[in-house]
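I need you to check the entry underneath: sequence plus fold tokens. Let me know what the token row says about the fold.

>
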Amino acid sequence: MRLLETKYRYFYNKNQIHSLMKASGQLQKASGSHGNKYYTTMADIYFAHTYSVNKLYDTAIFHLDHAYDIL
């Protein structure tokens, strides 16, 4: 899961939105199947960040709320 988080950060630095979404989804899927709340929360935060960069604020807030509920 750490590798998937690093993958997200790489695509963030390269500003590749489609790859950011894919990496966030992979992290969310992997963390969910392992029951890891930290990485599930981080995946939601990464989704929120990606959506906010694209000015999709309502969707970003949805993911932040979901991350908050997990914690």
In short: Helices lie at 2-14, 17-34, 37-53, 57-70. Residues 17-34 form the longest helix (18 residues). The mean pLDDT is 90. The two ends are 18 Å apart (CA to CA).
